[in-house]
Amino acid sequence: MKIMGIIYSKIRERIMKISTLFERNCKNHKYDKNDDVELKYKLPYKSDSLSEFQSPHHTLRYLWQSNYSAPVEDILLSSGVVLDAGCGFGAWLIDMALEYPTTDFVGVGLSPHQFPSQIPNNIKFAQANILSGLPFEDNEFDFVRLCYFANSLACTEWEPLIKELIRVTKPGGWIEFIEPGLVPTNMGPKFTILIDTLNQIIGERSNIAERLEVILQSTNQLKNIQKDTKSLTIGRLGGEVGISHENSILRYFIDESSVFYNRLGISSKDYEILLEDVRKEFQTRKVKEQFFRFWGQKIEP
């Protein structure tokens, strides 16, 4: 295990070197009127343990230049109640709670240990498995959100989960989903190996991005259902957001290293080489990943 730690610390060092170099370039860059200096949301330049966990949130916020697409601004400004049904480390909740201090936010997660110790006063966390039902009354929230569950749910689990999320949403309230596409496009052979292995590990998963709109319509409990799509190029060819997303991808495969090299039947050293080859592919190929937002309004009786 000591050797493993040394091997993967080297990979992390490579990732941090990329981030540090980009941070330096950003600080030295003279922005013109078309640069992202005018954007409402920029990617953080700081690289630390917290920003690593928040990176997927920052990527989505940067792509859409918003934390949500549903028309809930008035609700958020008038003391609403919001649920993040799979809040992870709470990055989205903290961001939103700071921006809308008069609204109450609730996050649900499997383990209390993943929740930050220091949070704004308008956030509460609840420990629960959303597949077993949410510990809330009917019609409790003005806005309900679920993000990045495509790899966590089997095909048959989506419909009952969506009905449960609708149950806790107030009539006239909104529900929103954010999910990536199932497989990036234009992948190189090394990255394809990792993605194919990931799909083998997680089992049968449908491309929920292709089905989610139909599922939402089939509930007959939602109206004004809409969809929006964004894409990015992974790595330096995709600019600032591409580098940030590359770091997130590599960190994931580092953190789950033993699962992957055991599944592939290779040594830890060969797995390190594989990850380095994947990083090189990102430098030369325009590997694109899509992200989807779906939102709809609960029908009032």
In a few lines, what is going on in this structure?
The protein is an alpha/beta fold. The protein contains 10 helices and 7 strands. Helix content is 45%, strand content 19%.
Describe this entry's structure for a reader.
InterPro entries: Methyltransf_25, SAM-dependent_MTases_sf. This is Methyltransferase domain-containing protein. It comes from Rhizophagus clarus. This protein has 301 residues and is of the alpha/beta class. It has one domain (2-28, 38-182, 189-298): Vaccinia Virus protein VP39 (Rossmann fold, 3-Layer(aba) Sandwich). Helices cover 45% and strands 19% of the residues. It has ten helices and seven strands. The chain has a seven-stranded mixed beta sheet with strand order 3-2-1-4-5-7-6, sandwiched between helices. Strand 1, helix 4 (91-99) and strand 2 form a beta-alpha-beta unit. Helix 2 crosses helix 8. The longest helix has 27 residues, at 2-28. It starts with a helix and ends with a strand.
